[in-house]
């Protein structure tokens, strides 16, 4: 809400951070931001924007009572099971690659050894190099990673 308290409906239906004027040549000329020899630039990092996401979790018994036989059959009624989570700390010098270490821990807790047994991954892409490192280290099928953007 703006400071006035007035409500305004906004539909977020596209990624407005992608610049149509960006080319390989333009991106290649950007200077590294952390060290002179680094690879992180303004072109492979996240833009400064607002973002949001929501997940509604509930007991299966409530979902079955509320949705009945429509559960999982109507658009928007995705059915999933929350089975595990994990946290993994990494040294500050490689900050951002936590998924490469947390995902195996979460999978192991439920007896899954092959990361590609999971259908979809949503992994933060704030810095492309960190995101790609995590995917490569885990050997993920890239068709399963952030399929909705």
List keywords for this structure.
single chain, 149 residues, 4 helices
In brief:
With 149 residues, this protein is an all-alpha fold. It is built from 4 helices and no strands.
- Count of distinct strands: 0
Strand content: under 5%
Major sheet, described briefly? Answer: none
Query: How many angstroms does the end-to-end distance come to?
Result: 26 Å
Order of helices and strands: HHHH
Number of helices: 4
* Spans of at least 5 consecutive residues with low confidence: none
Task: Summarize the amount of helix as a percent range.
Answer: 10-25%
Overall form: globular
Give an overview in words.
The protein has 149 residues and is an all-alpha fold. The protein contains four helices and no strands.
Topology of this protein?
Elements lengths: L23 H5 L31 H8 L31 H11 L18 H11 L11
Helix pairs in contact: 3-4
